[in-house]
Amino acid sequence: MKFGGDPPGSPEARDPTPQWPVGTGRGSIEVTVMNYCGVTTVLVVTGFVIYRYFTGDVTGAAINAGIVVLLTSALILGRIPSLTRVALVLFGFVISVSCLLSALLVSPNGLLWTYLVLWINFLVLPRNLALAFSAVIILTLTANYGLFDSLLQQISWVTVAVLIAGFGLVFTNQLREQRRLLSELATLDPLTGAGNRRLMQHDLQRAVAELRRGSRPSTLMVLDLDHFKRINDNHGHEAGDQILEDFASMVRSTLRTEDGLYRLGGEEFVVLLRNMDRHVAESGLKDLHRRLSGKLDGPEGPLRFSAGAAVLEPGENWSRWLARADDALYRAKHAGRDRLVVA
Question: To which H or E segment does residue 250 belong?
Fold first, then answer.
């Protein structure tokens, strides 16, 4: 059995869109900005709809009403986890088109809205998409000379718009990089780069939820390095740390992107193998153990490990699942080590 893919547990492996590095869940900055600005804009623009309609500006009222409908749709979609990113892109598109329509068809005062829209787009959209929307807005409005009272006003507006877009790009790049680093500190083991207990619990709970929704069961494997204490005692903790790093790297190289590698502590690791039923686990994991155990050379000779595996059962919670895999590891060690037992 040969797995493969990007390093599991890393933000890059867990998030297929690098420009949204740590996700766009309900509590993320992107969604918060969309909800706050979206609701505020809907309320304000609704007021403009009423005002323009009763003052005889039917065209302006219709444009504003369309903006309200589209923004409301984006806000509703944003409450569906699987459609959050679609909602963010729709929101950015709607506010970009809205500021263009307001300036070109309703009133030159719409130029003032573009400053806010340029800034919001960088907060809610991926970098490249925000740059594209900003370029379209700035170029389109700059080309319409009738929006400006003079050449000086046109140059001033373009200058400020470009500065705001540039500041938005720099600020959001720094913000997302800091969020990525904080995410790593919160979820990854600093020595090996494997996931920590917090990330493991999150991913195991998600695997349980997926099984309840009808997905194939996942398999959990707990690994423990045999006689690891001898390395620390005879060669020092620095040598032990290096072995842990090398072992995690070796295991990681065999896993798929959707799998997970976590360090429980000391020399004990957990591997989550998604969509692996009992038939595959019983035949494939023992072969995987034979190929990996003893492959890595250490200061005490070939590094071998014991392992216990358990396939998630219907109705089982994550802690019971982990306990069964850990019990299988216990049996593997007491049966002579350097072997794998499937619960």
Answer: helix 237-252
